[in-house]
Design goal:
By secondary structure, this protein is of the alpha/beta class. 41% of the residues lie in helices and 21% in strands. Strands 5-1-6-15-7 form a five-stranded mixed beta sheet, sandwiched between helices. Strands 11-10-12-9-13 form a five-stranded mixed beta sheet, sandwiched between helices. About 10% of the residues have low confidence. The structure holds arginine.
Length: 271
């Protein structure tokens, strides 16, 4: 073989070799991409074997942190029962209340459970499952308060958890930008504002207000009910358009409604 031919031959081998290596690399990348799409942050049409569930674990008895830092509560039990019914795994992440909504948008979490009331406004940007829990607002006041109805709060200072339905009803009464509304980051902080005397009343979901009274028998507070509060229904919240996940969750809700598990967990009848 003359020199020129030998070079040509070697060059051909090199070309083949690099093409081969390139193909292998491609395979690896594909494998990596496959592995990624299998992880928890499954998107629309993704793999639902493990779902990341976001929450604001400051809302006992629905969702809170126990002493060992585990996220526990009625909502958590409900989601676990749903997951079991449709054979998927779930992992809970404490995101906080306000960041929870963008976390659903970005896919940081697959869906949210957080005593979230299904409202028309929220339904414009998110999809909600069928309702799994019914609640209403409740007013918490100092024991010596003579407040007897929601309307009487009109010229009072009221604390709420920011951007909750409690915040919205109080805004409807006092005005959207009223300086007399103290919008705290969490419900326990809203209750503290009332206990400190910064607010005359705190308004929040009955589940959590009742739990506060139960856990703090010595606190000088009482609750005021008002029939004018509308019933609120909680739903699981998914990214708008993620119908595949929505259908799966609804299937689970349907199952645990039918077999009595849901009522067993919540102790309340939905309809
Ligand atoms: N039900 C109310 C709402 O949807 C309050 C929910 C607050 N939940 C929580 N985990 N902080 O606005």
């Amino acid at each position: 073989m003359n020199k020129q031919l030998r070079y040509l031959f070697m060059a051909a081998i090199l070309v083949c070799l690099s093409a081969f290596l390139f193909a292998c690399g491609g395979d690896e990348e594909e494998a990596e991409a496959d592995a990624e799409s299998n992880d928890a942050s499954s998107d629309e049409g993704g793999d639902f074997s493990k779902l990341v569930v976001g929450t604001d674990a400051t809302y006992a008895p629905m969702e809170s942190m126990d002493d060992s830092g585990e996220i526990v509560g009625i909502d958590i039990d409900i989601v676990e029962a749903i997951a079991e019914a449709v054979d998927v795994e779930v992992e809970f992440k404490n995101i906080g209340w306000e960041p929870l909504f963008p976390a659903v948008d970005s896919g940081e979490v697959d869906f949210a459970v957080s005593s979230i009331t299904i409202t028309d406004e929220r339904s414009e940007n998110y999809d909600f499952t069928d309702p799994y829990y019914v609640a209403n607002q409740l007013i918490l006041v100092p024991e010596d308060s003579d407040l007897s109805s929601f309307d009487e709060l009109e010229d009072k200072r009221v604390s709420v958890q920011i951007n909750t339905t409690g915040h919205i009803v109080v805004q409807d009464l006092l005005g959207e930008t009223s300086p007399d509304i103290l919008a705290a980051e969490t419900m326990p902080l809203a209750i503290s504002e009332m206990l400190n005397g910064n607010a005359d009343a705190a308004v929040g979901d009955n589940s959590t207000v009742n739990e506060y009274i139960k856990n703090n028998p010595d606190a000088a507070v009482k609750e005021v009910e008002d029939d004018s509060f509308e019933k609120e229904y909680y739903g699981l919240m998914v990214k708008k358009g993620n119908t595949e996940l929505l259908d799966l969750l609804n299937e689970g809700i349907e199952k645990i409604k039918e077999d009595g598990t849901l009522e067993e967990i919540t102790g309340i009848e939905l309809e």
